[in-house]
Each structure stands twice: as C-alpha cells, then as structure tokens.
Amino acid sequence: MSETKPKFISVGISHWKTPIDIRGKFSFSQDAVDDILEHAKKLGIQSLFVVTTCNRAQFFAHTHNSFMLKELFAKHTKATKEQFEQYHFLLTEDEAVHQLFELCCGLDSMMLGDLQIVSQVKDAAKYSNKKGMLDGYTHRLMQFVLQTYKDVRTDTAINEGPASVAHAAVLFMKQRFKQFTDKKILLFGTGEIGETTVKNLQKHSYKEMVLINRTRSKAEAIANPLGIRVAAIEKLKEELSDTNILIVATGAFEPTVNAEHFNGIDREMLLLDLSVPRNIDTAVDKLDGLELIDMDQLNSIQDETLAMRRKNIPKARTIINLHKNEFYDWVLMRNLSPTILALREKLHSYRTDELEQQKFRLSEEELQKADKLATSVVNKIANQATEYIKSKYRHSDEMVKMVEEMFKLNQ
User: Where are any strands of DSSP class E within 168-248?
Assistant: First the structure.
C-alpha cells in the first residue's frame, strides 16, 4: 500500500479528558471554521469537516499528513501549545472511523444517546461539502454513518427517554428542591439547549418562568405559545432580584453574566451554566448565597433513563460494526475499481484488435455480427473474472497483483 495514500484522521479534544475551563479555549466560531477550511485547502488537505460543540472540538479529515492537521487545529484555538499537547487526541484509520460512528449514534456523547450531536456532525459535513472540502470517501462514509444512526435509533432504545444536558439540568434542580411551585426560574439564552430546557420544565409546576434572549423575537417564539413571560435583556439584573433559579445557555464565547449582575441582591440562588465556553463568570461562585453548577457537574447526574440506555449499548455496537464492515467493503471495491476497469478495457482491446485484423476478410454485415458476438463473449468473461477477483480480493490483494501481471495492466 502506498505511503502517500490518504488516511481518515481525527484530531480534537472532548469532555472525556478535557475540563470545562480548557474546553472553552478550543471552541471554534463560524469565522474560525471558514478560516480553517480555507487554510486546509491551501495545504492540500483533500477533505475536512469541523465539529464544534459544548463538549468537543474535532476535525475529521481525509489526508496524508496527521502532523499538518494537528498544526492546523492548534493554530486556530485560544489554547497554549502545552494545553493542546496535554489534552488533544489523535485517531487514525479504523479508530477515527469507529469513533465517528459511535459519536453519531450517541455512544460518545456526554449524555449517552444524546440526539443533538448527529445533526451537528451532519451540518458540519454539509458545510464542508458546500465549501468544496468533502471528498468522495468522506461523503460515502457519512452516508453509512447516518444510515447506522437511523438503524440504531429504530432498532434499539439507546435514544429513548429524555437524556440531554437540559434533562440533566432539570434532574439536578429536582434533586436540590423538592418542588418548584415557589420558585421563579429565569432562563437566559433560547438557543437549542435553552429551548429544550424550557420544554423539559413544562412538565413541572413552578411559580414563574421568564425568558431573556439577545434577540427578543427568538424568545417570544418559544414563550408566547406556552404563556411564558419574556423580559428585555436590559432588565436582566432587575429580574435577578427575585429569581430562585438562573439557567444560562447563551452560546457566547465570553461570560454574559458576571458578579456585577448580583450587586445588591441578598438571597440564595442556584445558577446553572449550560454553556462551553462558560457563560457565567466563575467569580460569581464566591458570592454569598450563590451556587454555580457547570456542565461537567451535570454530567454526574444519573437516572433510570441513562441506566436503560446503557443496556442497549451492545446492540447498538453490533449495528455499528455491521455497517462499518459494509463501508470497508465499499472502500475495498473502490480501490479495486481501477484494476477491474483496466481489465475490461484490456479484454475489449483484444476484441477490437482481432476484429481489425479480420475486417478485410469479412463483409460489413459479417463484421457487425462478429463484433456483437465477440462483445458478448468478452463481457461474460469480464463479469465472471470480476466476481472472482472481488471474492478473492476481500481476503488478499495477491489476486489483483497476479491479474495485473498476467494482462500487463500497468504497461
């Protein structure tokens, strides 16, 4: 196998090894993703898509040079070189392929079976394709991965029941308080996580819920059908004065809530930060009466939903392995295609050469009949040879080498 043949490689950081304060340094904005893809194209990287979420920042690439990929990743983060070296992981070939399958099927998520990640990965791949940075290998791999996700979701219970960051936040609140009927809940940030949190809280009774978002119309689109009050972002500090539980999920790259927001407030309050990078300044945790909980602390929340999902892991992995093997069979046949094509062309060249020699002995009508007959015979031989080569090639490439030598296909 040629050393210059591209490999499927993944480099990144994730919640499994990297603490939340460090993960925030590895978040990529949309502008950063654009710069990465443009830089990758100039470096000659065939294919690359960038997954950036609360819990991971990760490249999936089809390229020759893993060192170059690591350099590209490190260059576009806010982390130091030492932090990158300490926390990053590098996966190549089957490890990278397998991790992509498990990631999209919810087995590598902070919350087992979390459905959000598959859409994020799909969107990342589609965006790279739009930018001309998704090759045929990676495109086909994603097709197998997404089909696997559908089968895992259909044939197992790995995704059933609520189990997400929003779900964990509500579970934590239930553990901390017996009930919410005397609690005012303020939710700042109505993106995907914020909206899911609102829906989870709708299953419980509370004194009042208030939504705040930088774009008020987004908050109103969620709040109005549910009869929830929306407050202006300028009223954040005022609303905090009588709040019992603050949930922040603004998706900003810098803290949107800091100690100044609590000046003059003398009450106990539970603060849940559902964002990476952090959206609540950690200095707030030092203030009297305020308890700050971050994403990593929420990860420790367990309930019967997660216990049920764990029982489905073996079945999910069986489905993953079946589809992964089908993908590798496609790769194998893809690598074999040039040899098969060359063999067919060689066999048909024998046909045309022979007909060329016989055309002076045959009439035009006889020549057409001979060509039709010879074409049929050559196609049958080629088809039978193709099936035989494929069956042997799945176990060894020696057959291909023998065919190439026998018919001088490389000459």
Answer: 180-188, 206-212, 229-230, 245-248
> If we measure between CA atoms, which residue out of 39, 36, 43, 41 comes closest to residue 57?
36
User: How many angstroms separate the CA atoms of 291 and 115, rounded?
Assistant: 29
Cβ atoms 381, 347 nearer than 8 A: yes
How far is it, in rounded angstroms, from Cα 121 to Cα 86? 25
C-alpha to C-alpha distance for 280 and 285, rounded to whole angstroms: 9
pLDDT, tens digit, 9 for 90 and up, residues 279-337: 999 999 999 999 999 988 887 776 677 888 899 999 999 999 999 999 999 998 888 78
Query: Catalytic pick from 13, 20, 33, 54?
Result: 54
222-240 core/surface letters (b: 16 or more CB in 10 A; e: else): bbeeeebebbeeeebeebb
The dotted CATH code for 165-306 is 3.40.50.720
C-alpha span between 56 and 27 (Å, rounded):
8
Calpha distance 146→305 (Å, rounded)? 24
And the tokens for 143?
A: 């097709």
Claim: this prediction has a pTM higher than 0.85: no
For residue 388, the model assigns a pLDDT of 84
Q: Which CATH number fits domain 7-160: 3.10.105.10, 3.50.30.50, 3.30.460.30, 3.40.50.150?
A: 3.30.460.30
| 411 band by pLDDT with thresholds 50, 70 and 90 | low
105 is catalytic: no
Three-state DSSP class for 219?
helix
**Helices 304-311 and 313-358, axial angle in degrees (round to 10):** 40
Encoding tokens for residue 198?
């609102």
CA angle 59, 148, 153 (to 5 degrees): 110
Reading phi first (left if > 0) and then psi (alpha if -120 to 50, else beta), residue 227 is in left
> Rounded to whole angstroms, how far apart are CA atoms 166 and 275?
11
Domain borders along the chain are: 7-160, 165-306, 336-406
Tell me how far apart the alpha carbons of residues 264 and 241 are, in angstroms, rounded to a whole number. Answer: 8
